Protein backbone atom coordinates (compact mmCIF):
# COMPACT_ATOMS: atom_id res chain seq x y z
CA UNK A 1 0.00 0.00 0.00
CA UNK A 2 3.01 2.26 0.35
CA UNK A 3 3.75 4.64 -2.46
CA UNK A 4 6.45 7.22 -3.18
CA UNK A 5 3.88 10.01 -2.97
CA UNK A 6 0.54 10.27 -1.23
CA UNK A 7 -2.57 11.44 -3.04
CA UNK A 8 -6.17 11.85 -2.15
CA UNK A 9 -6.87 8.61 -4.03
CA UNK A 10 -3.96 6.75 -2.43
CA UNK A 11 -3.28 8.33 0.99
CA UNK A 12 -0.68 6.98 3.40
CA UNK A 13 -1.81 5.10 6.46
CA UNK A 14 -0.99 6.62 9.85
CA UNK A 15 1.69 4.00 10.44
CA UNK A 16 3.47 5.00 7.23
CA UNK A 17 3.39 8.69 8.15
CA UNK A 18 4.69 7.86 11.63
CA UNK A 19 7.50 5.73 10.18
CA UNK A 20 8.52 8.48 7.79
CA UNK A 21 8.48 11.10 10.59
CA UNK A 22 10.58 8.82 12.73
CA UNK A 23 13.03 8.35 9.87
CA UNK A 24 13.36 12.10 9.34
CA UNK A 25 13.83 12.77 13.03
CA UNK A 26 16.48 10.05 13.26
CA UNK A 27 18.50 11.81 10.57
CA UNK A 28 19.27 14.66 13.03
CA UNK A 29 21.55 12.36 14.98
CA UNK A 30 23.16 13.18 18.30
CA UNK A 31 23.02 16.83 19.41
CA UNK A 32 24.06 18.83 22.44
CA UNK A 33 21.14 20.69 23.98
CA UNK A 34 20.98 23.13 26.87
CA UNK A 35 17.99 24.01 28.96
CA UNK A 36 16.51 24.37 32.42
CA UNK A 37 15.06 21.42 34.28
CA UNK A 38 11.38 22.20 34.70
CA UNK A 39 10.41 18.74 35.98
CA UNK A 40 12.37 15.73 37.17
CA UNK A 41 10.74 12.32 37.62
CA UNK A 42 12.40 9.20 39.00
CA UNK A 43 9.85 6.44 38.78
CA UNK A 44 10.25 3.74 41.40
CA UNK A 45 11.24 0.31 40.10
CA UNK A 46 12.62 1.64 36.81
CA UNK A 47 16.04 2.73 35.70
CA UNK A 48 14.67 5.41 33.41
CA UNK A 49 14.63 9.04 34.49
CA UNK A 50 12.27 11.56 32.84
CA UNK A 51 13.19 15.23 32.60
CA UNK A 52 11.23 18.14 31.16
CA UNK A 53 13.83 20.45 29.67
CA UNK A 54 12.62 24.02 29.16
CA UNK A 55 14.11 26.82 27.06
CA UNK A 56 15.01 29.65 29.49
CA UNK A 57 14.03 32.37 27.01
CA UNK A 58 10.94 30.91 25.36
CA UNK A 59 7.83 28.99 26.31
CA UNK A 60 9.11 25.72 24.81
CA UNK A 61 10.01 22.40 26.38
CA UNK A 62 11.02 18.87 25.44
CA UNK A 63 10.95 15.60 27.32
CA UNK A 64 14.31 13.95 27.90
CA UNK A 65 14.74 10.33 28.98
CA UNK A 66 17.94 8.96 30.41
CA UNK A 67 19.23 6.01 32.35
CA UNK A 68 19.50 6.62 36.08
CA UNK A 69 23.25 5.88 35.99
CA UNK A 70 23.79 8.53 33.31
CA UNK A 71 22.11 11.14 35.47
CA UNK A 72 23.86 10.12 38.68
CA UNK A 73 27.22 10.06 36.96
CA UNK A 74 26.99 13.40 35.16
CA UNK A 75 24.67 15.46 37.40
CA UNK A 76 24.35 13.96 40.86
CA UNK A 77 21.88 15.76 43.07
CA UNK A 78 20.18 17.42 40.12
CA UNK A 79 17.08 19.40 41.12
CA UNK A 80 14.36 21.26 39.31
CA UNK A 81 15.39 24.74 38.13
CA UNK A 82 19.00 23.75 37.40
CA UNK A 83 20.65 24.35 34.04
CA UNK A 84 21.96 21.26 32.22
CA UNK A 85 23.73 20.39 29.00
CA UNK A 86 22.83 16.99 27.53
CA UNK A 87 24.01 14.89 24.63
CA UNK A 88 20.82 13.43 23.23
CA UNK A 89 19.28 11.87 20.19
CA UNK A 90 15.71 12.73 19.10
CA UNK A 91 13.31 9.82 18.95
CA UNK A 92 9.79 9.75 17.61
CA UNK A 93 7.41 7.29 19.25
CA UNK A 94 4.81 6.28 16.62
CA UNK A 95 2.51 4.65 19.14
CA UNK A 96 2.00 7.92 21.05
CA UNK A 97 2.93 10.36 18.31
CA UNK A 98 5.39 12.12 20.62
CA UNK A 99 8.94 13.40 20.25
CA UNK A 100 11.48 12.79 23.02
CA UNK A 101 15.18 13.16 23.48
CA UNK A 102 17.17 10.17 24.68
CA UNK A 103 20.31 11.33 26.51
CA UNK A 104 23.44 9.35 27.06
CA UNK A 105 25.30 12.17 28.84
CA UNK A 106 24.02 14.93 31.13
CA UNK A 107 26.10 17.67 32.74
CA UNK A 108 24.90 20.28 35.14
CA UNK A 109 26.02 23.80 34.24
CA UNK A 110 28.18 25.08 37.09
CA UNK A 111 27.74 28.44 38.75
CA UNK A 112 31.03 29.65 37.29
CA UNK A 113 29.90 28.89 33.76
CA UNK A 114 26.54 30.55 34.41
CA UNK A 115 28.24 33.69 35.67
CA UNK A 116 30.53 33.70 32.65
CA UNK A 117 27.52 33.52 30.33
CA UNK A 118 25.77 36.30 32.22
CA UNK A 119 28.90 38.45 31.94
CA UNK A 120 29.05 37.80 28.20
CA UNK A 121 25.39 38.74 27.85
CA UNK A 122 26.02 41.84 29.95
CA UNK A 123 28.73 43.03 27.56
CA UNK A 124 26.46 42.35 24.59
CA UNK A 125 23.52 44.31 26.02
CA UNK A 126 25.78 47.15 27.10
CA UNK A 127 27.21 47.40 23.58
CA UNK A 128 23.66 47.64 22.22
CA UNK A 129 22.91 50.58 24.55
CA UNK A 130 20.42 48.86 26.86
CA UNK A 131 22.30 50.14 29.91
CA UNK A 132 22.85 53.70 28.65
CA UNK A 133 22.31 56.27 31.38
CA UNK A 134 20.86 58.89 29.04
CA UNK A 135 17.88 56.68 28.15
CA UNK A 136 16.82 56.11 31.75
CA UNK A 137 13.66 57.96 32.72
CA UNK A 138 12.85 59.80 35.93
CA UNK A 139 10.14 58.35 38.12
CA UNK A 140 6.93 60.37 38.59
CA UNK A 141 6.89 62.34 41.83
CA UNK A 142 3.51 61.03 42.98
CA UNK A 143 2.21 58.15 40.85
CA UNK A 144 -1.53 57.59 41.06
CA UNK A 145 -1.08 53.86 40.52
CA UNK A 146 1.94 51.57 40.81
CA UNK A 147 2.34 48.22 39.08
CA UNK A 148 4.00 45.46 41.11
CA UNK A 149 5.36 42.20 39.73
CA UNK A 150 6.39 39.75 42.45
CA UNK A 151 5.82 36.32 43.92
CA UNK A 152 2.48 35.45 45.46
CA UNK A 153 2.29 36.18 49.21
CA UNK A 154 6.03 36.84 49.23
CA UNK A 155 8.00 38.92 51.70
CA UNK A 156 8.94 41.23 48.85
CA UNK A 157 5.28 41.92 48.08
CA UNK A 158 4.55 42.60 51.74
CA UNK A 159 7.56 44.92 52.09
CA UNK A 160 6.65 47.00 49.04
CA UNK A 161 2.94 47.32 49.85
CA UNK A 162 3.41 47.95 53.57
CA UNK A 163 6.18 50.52 53.30
CA UNK A 164 4.53 52.34 50.40
CA UNK A 165 1.22 52.59 52.28
CA UNK A 166 3.06 53.79 55.38
CA UNK A 167 4.73 56.57 53.39
CA UNK A 168 1.73 57.56 51.25
CA UNK A 169 -1.57 55.97 52.32
CA UNK A 170 -3.43 57.03 49.17
CA UNK A 171 -1.16 55.11 46.78
CA UNK A 172 -2.80 52.38 44.69
CA UNK A 173 -1.16 49.16 43.47
CA UNK A 174 -1.95 46.74 40.69
CA UNK A 175 -0.15 43.56 41.64
CA UNK A 176 0.57 40.70 39.25
CA UNK A 177 1.87 37.56 40.97
CA UNK A 178 4.31 35.41 39.02
CA UNK A 179 6.92 32.75 39.61
CA UNK A 180 10.17 34.45 40.57
CA UNK A 181 12.49 31.48 40.16
CA UNK A 182 12.71 28.28 38.22
CA UNK A 183 11.71 27.36 34.70
CA UNK A 184 9.22 29.72 33.11
CA UNK A 185 9.73 32.51 35.64
CA UNK A 186 11.32 34.87 33.12
CA UNK A 187 8.49 34.40 30.64
CA UNK A 188 5.86 35.00 33.31
CA UNK A 189 7.57 38.22 34.32
CA UNK A 190 7.71 39.34 30.67
CA UNK A 191 3.99 38.62 30.26
CA UNK A 192 3.13 40.51 33.46
CA UNK A 193 5.27 43.43 32.32
CA UNK A 194 3.33 43.61 29.05
CA UNK A 195 0.01 43.62 30.94
CA UNK A 196 1.04 46.45 33.26
CA UNK A 197 2.68 48.47 30.48
CA UNK A 198 -0.57 48.36 28.53
CA UNK A 199 -2.48 49.76 31.54
CA UNK A 200 -2.57 53.55 31.08
CA UNK A 201 -3.31 54.10 34.79
CA UNK A 202 -0.02 52.48 35.86
CA UNK A 203 2.68 55.17 35.98
CA UNK A 204 5.60 53.09 37.29
CA UNK A 205 6.30 49.34 37.49
CA UNK A 206 8.24 47.61 40.28
CA UNK A 207 9.74 44.15 39.77
CA UNK A 208 10.49 42.79 43.24
CA UNK A 209 11.96 39.64 44.72
CA UNK A 210 13.73 38.81 47.94
CA UNK A 211 17.24 37.50 48.19
CA UNK A 212 18.39 34.10 46.97
CA UNK A 213 21.19 32.14 45.39
CA UNK A 214 22.64 32.93 42.00
CA UNK A 215 20.59 30.11 40.48
CA UNK A 216 17.41 31.50 42.05
CA UNK A 217 18.03 34.92 40.53
CA UNK A 218 18.82 33.67 37.03
CA UNK A 219 15.39 34.65 35.60
CA UNK A 220 16.23 38.30 36.32
CA UNK A 221 19.31 38.04 34.08
CA UNK A 222 17.29 36.59 31.21
CA UNK A 223 17.96 38.27 27.87
CA UNK A 224 14.29 38.30 26.90
CA UNK A 225 13.33 40.02 30.15
CA UNK A 226 16.07 42.62 29.74
CA UNK A 227 14.91 43.47 26.23
CA UNK A 228 11.27 43.62 27.35
CA UNK A 229 12.16 46.11 30.12
CA UNK A 230 14.17 48.19 27.64
CA UNK A 231 11.18 48.33 25.27
CA UNK A 232 8.70 49.11 28.07
CA UNK A 233 7.05 52.51 27.82
CA UNK A 234 6.51 52.77 31.59
CA UNK A 235 9.44 53.48 33.96
CA UNK A 236 10.63 50.28 35.63
CA UNK A 237 12.19 49.86 39.08
CA UNK A 238 14.28 46.76 39.75
CA UNK A 239 14.14 45.57 43.38
CA UNK A 240 15.65 42.10 43.24
CA UNK A 241 17.58 40.46 46.06
CA UNK A 242 19.82 42.33 48.45
CA UNK A 243 22.34 45.11 48.03
CA UNK A 244 25.04 42.70 46.83
CA UNK A 245 22.81 41.03 44.22
CA UNK A 246 23.09 42.61 40.77
CA UNK A 247 21.17 40.73 38.08
CA UNK A 248 21.15 42.21 34.60
CA UNK A 249 17.69 43.62 35.26
CA UNK A 250 19.32 46.15 37.61
CA UNK A 251 21.35 47.59 34.74
CA UNK A 252 18.54 47.92 32.19
CA UNK A 253 15.86 49.20 34.59
CA UNK A 254 15.33 52.94 34.91
CA UNK A 255 15.98 52.82 38.68
CA UNK A 256 17.71 50.17 40.79
CA UNK A 257 16.50 49.70 44.34
CA UNK A 258 18.74 47.78 46.70
CA UNK A 259 15.79 45.97 48.32
CA UNK A 260 11.99 45.82 47.94
CA UNK A 261 11.73 48.16 50.93
CA UNK A 262 14.02 50.63 49.16
CA UNK A 263 11.79 50.37 46.07
CA UNK A 264 8.79 51.50 48.12
CA UNK A 265 10.78 54.53 49.28
CA UNK A 266 11.71 55.41 45.72
CA UNK A 267 8.33 55.14 44.02
CA UNK A 268 6.27 57.21 46.50
CA UNK A 269 7.23 60.18 48.69
CA UNK A 270 6.94 60.16 52.46
CA UNK A 271 3.79 62.08 53.42
CA UNK A 272 5.17 63.13 56.82
CA UNK A 273 8.47 64.21 55.31
CA UNK A 274 6.72 66.16 52.56
CA UNK A 275 4.58 67.93 55.14
CA UNK A 276 7.67 68.84 57.14
CA UNK A 277 9.27 70.12 53.97
CA UNK A 278 6.21 72.22 53.19
CA UNK A 279 6.15 73.66 56.71
CA UNK A 280 9.82 74.53 56.53
CA UNK A 281 9.38 76.09 53.09
CA UNK A 282 6.41 78.10 54.35
CA UNK A 283 8.38 79.34 57.36
CA UNK A 284 11.27 80.33 55.12
CA UNK A 285 8.87 82.12 52.82
CA UNK A 286 7.28 83.96 55.74
CA UNK A 287 10.67 85.04 57.06
CA UNK A 288 11.77 86.17 53.63
CA UNK A 289 8.55 88.15 53.14
CA UNK A 290 8.84 89.78 56.58
CA UNK A 291 12.47 90.66 55.95
CA UNK A 292 11.58 92.16 52.58
CA UNK A 293 8.72 94.19 54.03
CA UNK A 294 10.90 95.47 56.89
CA UNK A 295 13.66 96.46 54.52
CA UNK A 296 11.29 98.24 52.14
CA UNK A 297 9.54 99.97 55.06
CA UNK A 298 12.90 101.28 56.33
CA UNK A 299 13.85 102.39 52.85
CA UNK A 300 10.49 104.17 52.47
CA UNK A 301 10.87 105.83 55.88
CA UNK A 302 14.37 107.00 54.91
CA UNK A 303 13.00 108.45 51.67
CA UNK A 304 10.12 110.17 53.47
CA UNK A 305 12.53 111.71 56.00
CA UNK A 306 14.50 113.50 53.32
CA UNK A 307 13.92 117.29 53.25
CA UNK A 308 12.64 117.21 49.70
CA UNK A 309 9.69 115.10 50.85
CA UNK A 310 9.45 116.26 54.47
CA UNK A 311 9.20 119.99 53.42
CA UNK A 312 8.86 120.09 49.64
CA UNK A 313 8.27 123.89 49.68
CA UNK A 314 11.93 124.37 50.65
CA UNK A 315 12.91 122.99 47.29
CA UNK A 316 10.72 125.52 45.54
CA UNK A 317 11.92 128.37 47.80
CA UNK A 318 15.57 127.57 47.23
CA UNK A 319 15.18 127.26 43.50
CA UNK A 320 12.90 130.32 43.41
CA UNK A 321 15.64 132.35 45.09
CA UNK A 322 18.17 131.04 42.62
CA UNK A 323 15.91 131.95 39.72
CA UNK A 324 15.35 135.49 41.14
CA UNK A 325 19.09 135.97 41.63
CA UNK A 326 19.77 134.83 38.10
CA UNK A 327 17.05 137.12 36.78
CA UNK A 328 18.49 140.14 38.68
CA UNK A 329 21.94 139.33 37.48
CA UNK A 330 20.70 139.04 33.91
CA UNK A 331 18.93 142.43 34.20
CA UNK A 332 22.08 144.08 35.57
CA UNK A 333 24.24 142.60 32.89
CA UNK A 334 21.77 143.65 30.21
CA UNK A 335 21.55 147.21 31.57
CA UNK A 336 25.29 147.45 31.77
CA UNK A 337 25.68 146.30 28.22
CA UNK A 338 22.96 148.65 26.97
CA UNK A 339 24.54 151.63 28.76
CA UNK A 340 27.97 150.76 27.49
CA UNK A 341 26.63 150.39 23.97
CA UNK A 342 24.83 153.73 24.23
CA UNK A 343 28.04 155.46 25.38
CA UNK A 344 29.91 153.92 22.54
CA UNK A 345 27.26 155.05 20.08
CA UNK A 346 27.41 158.63 21.45
CA UNK A 347 31.19 158.74 21.12
CA UNK A 348 31.03 157.36 17.61
CA UNK A 349 28.42 159.94 16.63
CA UNK A 350 30.59 162.73 18.01
CA UNK A 351 33.55 161.51 16.02
CA UNK A 352 31.40 161.28 12.93
CA UNK A 353 30.15 164.80 13.44
CA UNK A 354 33.70 166.05 13.94
CA UNK A 355 34.80 164.45 10.72
CA UNK A 356 31.67 165.33 8.74
CA UNK A 357 31.89 168.04 5.94
CA UNK A 358 28.65 169.45 7.27
CA UNK A 359 30.53 171.00 10.18
CA UNK A 360 32.83 172.80 7.76
CA UNK A 361 29.86 174.03 5.75
CA UNK A 362 28.35 175.38 8.93
CA UNK A 363 31.29 177.68 9.27
CA UNK A 364 30.44 179.41 5.91
CA UNK A 365 32.11 177.17 3.41
CA UNK A 366 30.39 175.82 0.29
CA UNK A 367 30.97 172.89 -2.06
CA UNK A 368 30.95 173.82 -5.74
CA UNK A 369 29.70 171.16 -8.13
CA UNK A 370 29.07 170.94 -11.82
CA UNK A 371 25.61 170.30 -12.96
CA UNK A 372 26.46 166.58 -13.28
CA UNK A 373 27.64 166.50 -9.67
CA UNK A 374 31.38 166.66 -10.24
CA UNK A 375 33.15 168.72 -7.61
CA UNK A 376 35.03 171.76 -8.77
CA UNK A 377 38.46 171.62 -7.26
CA UNK A 378 40.30 174.34 -9.25
CA UNK A 379 39.46 177.55 -11.12
CA UNK A 380 40.64 176.00 -14.31
CA UNK A 381 37.90 173.40 -14.04
CA UNK A 382 35.19 175.95 -14.99
CA UNK A 383 34.58 178.30 -17.91
CA UNK A 384 32.39 181.38 -18.30
CA UNK A 385 28.77 180.42 -18.72
CA UNK A 386 29.06 177.00 -16.89
CA UNK A 387 26.13 176.20 -14.66
CA UNK A 388 27.19 175.33 -11.16
CA UNK A 389 25.51 174.20 -7.99
CA UNK A 390 26.60 175.47 -4.62
CA UNK A 391 25.98 173.17 -1.65
CA UNK A 392 25.65 175.14 1.57
CA UNK A 393 25.11 174.03 5.14
CA UNK A 394 21.36 174.49 4.92
CA UNK A 395 20.74 173.67 1.21
CA UNK A 396 21.90 174.29 -2.39
CA UNK A 397 21.77 177.23 -4.77
CA UNK A 398 22.40 177.51 -8.50
CA UNK A 399 25.01 179.78 -10.07
CA UNK A 400 26.53 180.64 -13.46
CA UNK A 401 30.19 181.35 -14.05
CA UNK A 402 30.58 184.93 -15.30
CA UNK A 403 34.32 185.06 -15.38
CA UNK A 404 36.47 182.03 -14.85
CA UNK A 405 39.58 180.21 -15.72
CA UNK A 406 41.93 182.76 -14.12
CA UNK A 407 44.11 181.84 -11.23
UniProtKB/TrEMBL annotation:
Single GO biological process annotation from the record: DNA catabolic process
Keywords, ordered alphabetically: Cytoplasm, Exonuclease, Hydrolase, Nuclease
Catalytic activity annotation: Exonucleolytic cleavage in either 5'- to 3'- or 3'- to 5'-direction to yield nucleoside 5'-phosphates
Boundaries of every OB-fold nucleic acid binding domain copy: 13-107
Listed Pfam families: Exonuc_VII_L (PF02601), tRNA_anti_2 (PF13742)
Documented EC number(s): 3.1.11.6
Single annotated GO MF: nucleic acid binding
Domain (Exonuclease VII large subunit C-terminal) ranges: 130-341
Main location group: cytoplasm
GO CC term (a single one): exodeoxyribonuclease VII complex
InterPro entries: Exonuc_VII_L, Exonuc_VII_lsu_C, OB-fold_nuc-bd_dom
CDD domains membership: ExoVII_LU_OBF
UniProt function note: Bidirectionally degrades single-stranded DNA into large acid-insoluble oligonucleotides, which are then degraded further into small acid-soluble oligonucleotides.
PANTHER family with a match to the protein in the record: EXODEOXYRIBONUCLEASE 7 LARGE SUBUNIT
Protein name (Swiss-Prot/TrEMBL): Exodeoxyribonuclease 7 large subunit
Gene: xseA
Amino acid sequence: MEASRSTSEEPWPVRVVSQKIGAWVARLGWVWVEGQVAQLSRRPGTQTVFLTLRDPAADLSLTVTSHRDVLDRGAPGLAEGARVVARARPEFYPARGTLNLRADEIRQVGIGELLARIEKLKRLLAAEGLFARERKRRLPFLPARVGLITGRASAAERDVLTNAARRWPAVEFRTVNVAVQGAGAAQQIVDALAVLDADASVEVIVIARGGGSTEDLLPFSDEGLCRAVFACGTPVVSAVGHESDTPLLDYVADVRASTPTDAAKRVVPDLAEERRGLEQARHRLDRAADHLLDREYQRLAAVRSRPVLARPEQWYDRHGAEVAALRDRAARVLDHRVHRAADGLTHTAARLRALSPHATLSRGYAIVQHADGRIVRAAADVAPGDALRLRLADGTVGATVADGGAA
